[in-house]
User: Fold these one by one.
Assistant:
Number 1:
Amino acid sequence: MASKYHTSIGSFTRKSTFFWASVGATVGLANLWQFPYLASIHGGGLFIFLYLACLLLVTLPLMVTEAVLGRHSRHGIVLAMDGMVKDAGCSPLWRLAGPLSVLAAFLVLSFTAVFGGIVLAYVFFGAADSFRAATPEAATGILTDLVSRPGGHREFMAWHAFFLVLVVWVSAQGVVKGLERSLRFLVPAALLLMLGLFALSASHGRLDSGIEHILALRPDDVGFNSVKAAFFHAFYTLGLGMGVWAIFGAYSTSHTRLKRSLLAVVLMDTLVAILAGLMMFSVALDGASLDGERGFGLLFVSLPVTLAQLPHSQLIIAAVFLLVLMIVWATAISLLEPVVGWFREWTGAPRGWSAVIAGVAVWAAGLGSLFSFNLWADYRFAGATLFRWLELTTGGILIPLVALLIATFAGWCLTRRYAARILGNTPVAIRKIWYWVMRLVLPVLVAWIGIQYTVFSLSNLCDNGSAAIWCAQDGAPEQPMPATANDDGDGLPASPQSEGPGPEGNASGQGAESQPAENAPNGDDILYHSV
């Protein structure tokens, strides 16, 4: 067994693997249950332009920074930051970015695995024709029966464990035989299946409706909240702050062009989100049945009901959720990698045992989120379940803090010469833009995003009846800023009852019949950045 801190964690054998692995890490549930909604209410094609601008300003510089840290050190984020801090002669406090990012990946994977269990179950539900002629009430009942039925948690646990077995099985095979082979097959297969489903939706549905919702330019729908939604979506949906890019950078071959590959990944992620939106609104035969829908309500209630109207709906619904399963599976494989890489470097343990131990720990942590929907649904601290507090901790604190530490470290602790060396062959103009973005723009912007996320999350707990000390005690919870119906969907968390902003909340005025039952996942329970 290799000695502690000297384990070779492996590497890819093909330069294109970095691209496919990165696409698998970035394309997630948010592309399906969040982006179409945001584009439809924030100006369609104009929102897409705003989103791309935010990706280039926020996401891409941070992705590049994390990836080159791993590439330069050939280690996961913990040892990469350790070595970089020593080389730069900076305070040891900067090393906190490493363990905090691994903790964030671990917690987010525990949530993602719970979602993956639901998606896996829905593949079989679709194949069994459970949604034949389903109404919103019936589809809601299927979700509620799986997730929050009293005494039914064991079935939910079985789907959750089944999904994690699939994830751990891939990781245990190693970087080449497991990660590389699986993602090189899984991601292209998912994209081909998506293209096939898109062609089907265009031929049997109303493609003009999809174009009107997603691509049409609607300047009247664009405002400050649109910009805010674009920033939040760009920051929280591409795996930043969780060590994914550092470990993939460490695995990349010496001739992989990281910066060019990451730019292609960002564009591919946006293209997938656009295709998802076009598909969803095209199959809505009345052109408006998915308006204002997002999150659990969109993916697990409204979408199956809409697809049930199509010919051969049994096969179509099964294929759609197989596509979603492949997407979540690839995301979960990517999120497990920083945890497994850290454990191997810390203990020197073999790859197989590291994957199994990490997987068991993720399963145990995920039970806290799973039970928050059933057994522990009535146990709340300051008005929130364990799941909601873990969401707030990761989304409002851990991920923004890690991103803030990395951006500030790169902008203020690294000399320009040292930064140029780790960035590699980069045009001088691009290098200068990167330097000043990391130095001035990102620290302020990321801090603002984290504070906004936390403030609105705490405020929404008050909206849901929390009696915590930060809530107003006169029965009328205070809001951190005025909220109107037009604020809905600006990229911040929200309760399903409020009209305030939120990527996770249900659209204001949405019919109660399409809402999951009380303890089932609802708009307020979605971990926006997890997938």
Number 2:
Amino acid sequence: MESEQQARGREGAAERRLHLYAYLQPREHHRTYLEIMRLFTATLLADLSAGEVASALAAAERDGRIDEGESRVENVIARLKQLVEWGNLVHGRREVVASSITEFQHGSVRYQVSKLAVRVQRDVDELLRVPEGAREVSRELLPAIERGLRQLGVTLSEAVMAERHGPASARRATEALAEQVTTLFLQHAELAATVRDFYAYLGHVVTRHHLDPDEIAGFRNLLVEYIQMVVEDVLRYTPAIGETLATLARSRSELLRLLGAPAFTGESADERVERSRGRSAADWQELTDWFVDRPGRPSQVTALREATARAIGALLASVKRATAGGGPLPGRRADLLKLAGWFDAATPARAHRLYAAAFGLYSARHLLPAPEHDADDEHTPWRDGPVTDVTVSVRSRGDRGARGRTSRIVDDPITEQSLLAEARHADRRRAEAVAELASAAGRLESAVLSPDALGVLCELLTMAMAQRERVEDGGVTADPVRGLRVLIEHRAGHTTRIASTGGTLTLNDTVVAVSAS
């Protein structure tokens, strides 16, 4: 019951945090909310009253950044209360000198920005400043990360030795160690962010169907030069980084102890305190997973290599399609752009005539009643209405003919019943195999398993071994449906032999335990 309450509490906290983004919705007064949040995040420890906020918003109203009348005190108070309800602002209070009750009400209630709201607004301002083009990958950070990891191993050894020479030497060595760890994780965070942004841009590019000559030349350079350089740099430095991380993993406990990780200070970790990166084992595991593959968990370097191969293939196909004219007929892109220019320069009356002449669509009489609901109405401009998808054949060749014929829907009850029977038979065999393993839980090495039971055991053993970082680690996994649990532990010199009708499975230096929940 307690775990369910904790889960509900986490879900409620996540929902409350999502309310912090409510003021960014394109709704009424969203520009006012944005100006208020920028005002509170412009300075450190901002503590403002409704009157001070209204005075600051007056300049924004004169410049046209917010709607007229939004700087009035009564409107500002309503906006501030709404931001407090969403969790972006919190109440503060201090003594004021006022000449009237109204002035006291406007000045005594103070507002401050919450920590998470500062992050939201910072991300929003950064997002609004980001250009639409590709973001350059910080390739120079890769050799810096490799050098930083090598130097970190030397500094860690010096810090351990400095503890024997007194508190002063130990403090200086620990400060140098913390400085290198913080720099290392900042460099990796910047590298990972630039890689994600660059490949997100590639994902947007590969969906393009029409490219002009300048874009084709730019994407050719992107393919031949930049992507190749990025991948080569990553693959060049990854082996050295992986070896250094493996070496540091053996002394990770000492590193966390010197950095003051809560697990080694004897004090309970305060979840409300956000520590710097690199002060927990999870941070180092995340850094390792970015560069090093694990069984069942490919690294981000592997994902980057695979994404590069897919992006290059897709971009080459787009360039080939664009240069080939989209098929046996010449492309219609230039004609469509010329027609769009005519529409842009035409008057409303001329645009109607142009539309009828270009597409052969004239005004029509509706002899049937109007539909009950339509996506558009007479109050919605065409630029704000729903976007209609245009097929590739229409965009490239102006051909609206259908391709192929609609396939018939075949109802095959015999095949359906045979597939269902096969699925029931497979489920019954797995249930029997799990029951056999559960009955042999206490005598696994003396029992003789069937091929199905050995297959289920090997499947669970693979999942348990994938959790290990080193050979000395253990692992545990369970069948999520039937609850069979398999635990593996490392024990030097012990050999586990599991016999079956098809052969014997031998595991060296390993102990296997099976239990049924």
Number 3:
Amino acid sequence: MSGSRAAGTVEGAQQVTDPVDGAPMQTTRTRTLPAPPEPRPAAPPAPPRPGFRWWMPGLALLVLAVALLARSAPSTGDTQWIVVGGAGWWTLTTLLHLPMAVILALLAGGLVERVGYFWCGRRPPVPGRLPALAPAVCVQLPMFNEHAVAARVIDAACALRWPAGRLTVQVLDDSTDPATRALVERACADAYARTGVPCTVLHRTDRRGYKAGALEAGRHRTDAELIAIFDADFVPPPDYLLRAVPHFYRPDGTPDHSLALVQAQWGHLNHDESALTRAQALWVDDHHTLQMSWRSARWRFVNFTGTAGVWRASAIRSVGGWRAASLVEDCELSFRHLFAGYRTTFVNHIVVPAELPATYAAYRSQQRRWTQGWVQLQRLHLPTLALRHRTRWPRRVHLLYHMCISWQWPAWAIWTALLPILILNDLWYGALGTAAGLGLYLLPATLWALTTGVLATLETRHTYPGRATPAALARRLTRVVPYVAVNAGMLPHQFSAFCEGLFGPLHTEFERTPKAGDGPKPRGGGGAARRPYVLAEVAFAAYQLACAAIFAARGLPLCALGATLLAGCVLTLTHLGGRARP
């Protein structure tokens, strides 16, 4: 299933005692890892029909939209084929607004989380008391060709404050670049010499399972009670473990075995670098500070974000270990813990800063993987969540919203393709007047974006160093503009990722997000594999520009402006996605 069956090698970065078998490990010693047992995978959904390609539904939507647009474009002078305001008009118009109803329902669900945060989630969870003998902690650092940031995260992991003899570091290095492998081994040796923290390197000879496979292989090489995980671009503060681990204990110092995960807030190392990083910083602040805080406090469940979290090792073992069943192996593991009855918690005042993707190519690659992976997760676990998981119905409804939030992308894609046709046929509520059109079609999304921007800006008290002056808050609030533009420009890209996740194969290549200073682009970052995405983006923009031209000819300047801006956002991101810097 994952890379858990793949054997590899362990190269010690210093002479220490192996935490599992007690054998001394020399700097140059190499040992072959035994293949750990692989958990039995769940039965995968039926494969797509032969000859069917994941991009075909998008192509069908485009062809249908173009055909309907061509049918609606000619102006005969009598467009009132149905009486505006009549019973038939209300019925047909309401039915055709079904995609917008889905969008409004998803926006309402998001608003419940963000506003609900002030009643449930704003107060951080109270940690327990550590026992007299601190638990053994293993810090895992999965990485792949992370030449620019590997040494930094190794240094930060070895600098974590924890009782002597109770901390080990595993560097799960799947790098194929010899120079990066040598850098990682040297960084581990230097960190051990400086801190005395045992730091071992796992080089696998087979990358099956990608990150999940590396984490599973490392898990079988430690007997630590708790496992902390950090991606290579994260820099955990020295007191991270001292603040996170007590949450696994009750006030009397006894372990809370029902708690499987403590997830920390993502911070930012480069949030002010560009419009792209500012937009991402707003998204992260909103998702973590508001959404995850509310979910944790209200429903006792958050999904692991792949990094900046501490897992109870026995909990991972009890649900079958890491699996590469989808591209979001962290979320897939989280939902298996949910079904097994475990709790997971989020602590927003523990902040771990990290690099935001600094290029549009890196950002698009990251978003594609996340959207595709979440849809794969639905294929694996949605029936269990909807039908078999035993919980109260309000919690089930929210968990379904949580798992299915990626359906916003097909809803928006269908709606932006359909709305111009409705406008040209007077089957939209703007036919009742300008105020009705602006209020219904622009106001909900505008209010949602402003609410998100304001709340995320005011509530990120722990994320940004220094005092939150009015000038700093005002500047941070302007992130709403690039945030909206980037999300609009990503629409056809995200729709393509959704379709690939729903109709494509479950087991696809894991594309890492390039970090600052990276040299070669990762495999799959362009070429034929991404051609359907670029074609979809160009076709979507061309469709919107055609709609804009028709609107202008019909004397609908506001509609023409909206379609033009949407096409411009898409083409701009498509162009910048092929460049090295934003």
